[in-house]
Amino acid sequence: MCGRFALTATPEELLELFGLLEAEDFPARYNIAPTQPIIVVVASDRAKPGSNLPERKALLVRWGFTPGWVKDPRKFPLLINARSESAVGRAAFRAAMRHRRILVPASGFYEWHRPAKGSGEAPQAYWVRPKRGGIVAFAGLMETWSSADGSEVDTAAILTTGANTVIRHIHDRMPVVIQPEDFARWLDCRTQEPREVADLMTPVPDDYFEAIPVSDKVNKVANTGPELQDEVVPAMSPETARRKRADDRNDDNGQMSLF
Fold first, then answer.
1. pLDDT tens track for 207-252
2. Cα distance between residue 188 and residue 196, in whole Å
3. What residue ranges are annotated as transmembrane (predicted)?
């Protein structure tokens, strides 16, 4: 899953990558959490022939998808992720998969490795970022929820897929990433049915992301500074530390035997 991410790019960088006319002027955000507003990219309304307006636009929406048929969001679970393999078959996401596919710009995401119960190890947070830096575009879905009084809230979820081998030791899921050359096809809900973009909802190659161990400061939504992405030495349980010391001693003994 993807429960926290960051976006530290400038508006100018977003304009260039996504071909936007304008984007909100926003500060770097190092700890974006569910229910917070996020920037998403959607297809623009159909332009008139000869128009030079961009094909995409940026919107601010709430991270936490609410289907239009929900009567009371307070009684409905917060849907921050959608499984790409089954989204089109689920009532909550079916319409959005066909009509409201979006891109979610990010600089990377956080994931937690949670050891088995009884191992004595503490959960370890990781900052997962593109090896080459820059902005990544997560695949997402959007829905506008309308209340009885007529007010509207734009909401979104991030699509996930099975983790590649680099991420799998941390978690078995990861966000779907859409490459720039596929932006237009993913956002084209007029001519591209969900089955025709299914090939885009696969894990990125193993060399795309790198996972950096970070402190548990990211667990608290109130922590929002760049130090959240500082690398730390992963904590080890006493048993793991004991095994490592034994392995180190064995390596030392093996090297000494060469002389």
1. 999 999 999 999 999 999 999 999 999 876 545 545 555 665 665 5
2. 11
3. none
pTM (predicted TM-score): 0.88
d(CA 208, CA 226): 22
Q: Specify whether the CB–CB gap between 126 and 170 falls below 8 A.
A: yes
> How far apart, in whole angstroms, are the C-alpha atoms of residue 93 and residue 100?
10
Task: Place 50 in a pLDDT band, splitting at 50, 70 and 90.
Answer: low
Instruction: Report the SS3 class of residue 247.
Output: helix
Given the DSSP bridges, would you call strands 4-7 and 108-113 parallel, antiparallel or unpaired? antiparallel
CB neighbours (10 Å) of residue 226?
10
Tell me the C-alpha to C-alpha distance, in Å, between residue 142 and each of 72, 111, 112, 115, 197: 18, 23, 26, 33, 16
Residue with tokens 């929002």: 224
Residue 160 in contact with residue 177, Cβ under 8 Å? no
Average pLDDT, the chain: 90
Q: What percent of the chain has pLDDT over 90?
A: 75
DSSP character for 22?
Answer: -
Alpha-carbon gap, residue 18 to 8, rounded angstroms: 15
Q: Averaged over 140-157, what is the pLDDT?
A: 93
